[in-house]
């Protein structure tokens, strides 16, 4: 496979892995984890749950602000601290479009470099990904992904279709900014996966590709079909690395890559096909074009039409970092006070402790019969049961492992209101 020009993980590192780089990388990761955790604790619940009761749009705007400033720390790490050169080429795209992005999946960190483009367009808080469900289970980072409404998939269409379509329907408001990123290959590129993909292509009369895997079309078509009434365009993104393909730790420690090249092709929605077969054919042709572009990239070292975006504005990044530090530092200090650590703020007239008595009855496919304590909490005159219904589509529900169908049946199962429904 090396002869194809594909950047190899076996090539020498751009920078040696020295103790200072390890220390700097570890410190940066600690800062990223701690700031994410504090933002989750003090802002995540209020922006993603409480504010959503009043307005989904305002909830998403507030979530995009608080977690967008955190996401902006990553391009600062990549480009300013690690001095990775990020080069954009192709079409210059407008700042305020609702778009579906597709990209090749060369390595485990491709999706993080899309933040560099989103930051330049002011969309770092509004970019969402369709990503494997295991990443949603990561401590802290996975919780952020839930708050930002990333779509988890098992990479099996039979298991994913229902969840994906249900979440896509919540993104249909044209007034809500949206960048939805999809990696149609379904997994990152390796030589072994490429050989299997080429074998499948040969057996089924499909293009034999050297630098990308055959794309899976059903998920992309579902996104396009569900959102076609509110999208402006599809962004076809092709990513190439020089001189070595990076891992997550390569990024964190600043040893690779030396350069990231991102080519953007804007396709207006009016130019996209509509039927499933036509969309599948378009996607296959697009990945054949990506394969040719990457072959040229590996031989020439660049994509055509470079220079469509400038570098990061360092002062803006510094202001962003100061804002994150002030917010997280202030609320960490406030949270250390005993009077602020009780967590007894009522939710719809019910304290969190009382709500937790109902959790065994609303987890899993069937749940347990509601306890007497749970039914007593729900029958409290201060309890606002219709208010609780507003949280049915909240990302926190899935994050806490709650089955919303079971939760909405609690008033009936507790014999509080036999006719109750959300």
Gist?
The chain has 422 residues and is α/β, with parallel strands linked by helices. The protein has helices spanning 19-54, 56-71, 73-81, 110-120, 141-147, 157-169, 191-203, 217-227, 248-253, 276-300, 314-335, 352-356, 372-379, 385-389, 395-399, 404-408, 410-413, and strands at residues 85-90, 99-103, 127-132, 151-153, 179-182, 233-242, 259-268.
Describe this structure in words.
- The protein folds into two domains: 2-320, 3-Layer(aba) Sandwich (Glycerol-3-phosphate (1)-acyltransferase), CATH 3.40.1130; 352-413, Orthogonal Bundle (Hydrophobic Seed Protein), CATH 1.10.110.10.
- 48% of the residues lie in helices and 10% in strands.
- The protein contains 17 helices and seven strands.
- It has helices at 19-54, 56-71, 73-81, 110-120, 141-147, 157-169, 191-203, 217-227, 248-253, 276-300, 314-335, 352-356, 372-379, 385-389, 395-399, 404-408, 410-413, and strands at 85-90, 99-103, 127-132, 151-153, 179-182, 233-242, 259-268.
- It has a seven-stranded mixed β-sheet with strand order 1-7-6-2-5-3-4, with helices on both faces.
- Helix 6 (157-169) runs parallel beside helix 8.
- The model is unreliable at 1-6 and 338-343 (pLDDT under 50).
Features:
7-stranded mixed sheet, transmembrane helix, 422 residues, Bifunc_inhib/LTP/seed_store, Hydrophobic Seed Protein, 17 helices, disordered N terminus, transferase, alpha/beta, 48% helix, 2 domains, EC 2.3.1.51, Glycerol-3-phosphate (1)-acyltransferase
């Amino acid at each position: 496979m090396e002869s194809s020009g594909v950047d190899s993980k076996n090539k020498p590192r751009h920078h040696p892995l020295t103790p200072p780089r390890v220390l700097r990388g570890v410190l940066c990761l600690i800062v990223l984890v701690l700031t994410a955790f504090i933002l989750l604790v003090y802002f995540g619940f209020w922006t993603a749950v409480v504010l959503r009761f009043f307005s989904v749009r305002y909830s998403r705007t507030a979530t995009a602000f608080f977690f967008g400033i955190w996401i902006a720390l990553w391009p600062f790490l990549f480009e300013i601290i690690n001095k990775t050169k990020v080069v954009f080429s192709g079409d210059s795209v407008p700042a305020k479009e609702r778009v579906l992005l597709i990209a090749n999946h060369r390595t485990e960190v491709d999706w993080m470099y899309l933040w560099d483009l989103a930051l330049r367009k002011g969309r770092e808080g509004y970019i969402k990904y369709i990503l494997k469900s295991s990443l949603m289970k990561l401590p802290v980072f996975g919780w952020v992904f839930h708050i930002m409404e990333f779509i988890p998939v098992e990479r099996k269409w039979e298991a994913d279709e229902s969840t994906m379509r249900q979440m896509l329907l919540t993104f249909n408001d044209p007034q809500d900014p949206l960048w939805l990123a999809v990696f149609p290959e379904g997994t990152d590129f390796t030589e072994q996966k490429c050989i299997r993909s080429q074998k499948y292509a040969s057996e089924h009369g499909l293009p034999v590709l050297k630098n990308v895997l055959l794309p899976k079309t059903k998920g992309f078509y579902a996104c396009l079909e569900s959102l076609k009434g509110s999208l402006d365009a599809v962004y076809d993104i092709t990513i190439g690395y020089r001189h070595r393909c990076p891992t997550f730790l390569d990024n964190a420690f600043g040893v690779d890559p030396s350069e990231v090249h991102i080519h953007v092709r804007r396709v207006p929605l009016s130019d996209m096909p509509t039927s499933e077969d036509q969309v599948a054919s378009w996607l296959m042709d697009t990945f054949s074009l990506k394969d040719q572009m990457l072959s040229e990239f590996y031989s020439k070292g660049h994509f055509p039409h470079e220079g469509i975006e400038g570098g990061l504005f360092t002062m803006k990044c510094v202001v962003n970092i100061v804002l994150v530090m002030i917010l997280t530092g202030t609320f960490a200090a406030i949270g250390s006070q005993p009077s602020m650590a009780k967590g007894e703020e009522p939710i719809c007239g019910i304290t969190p402790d009382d709500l937790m008595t109902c959790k065994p009855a609303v987890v899993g496919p069937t749940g347990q019969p509601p306890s007497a304590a749970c039914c007593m909490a729900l029958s409290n005159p201060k309890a606002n049961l219709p208010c609780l219904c507003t949280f049915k589509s909240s990302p926190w529900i899935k994050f806490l492992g709650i089955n919303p169908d079971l939760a909405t049946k609690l008033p009936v199962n507790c014999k509080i209101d036999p006719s109750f429904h959300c």
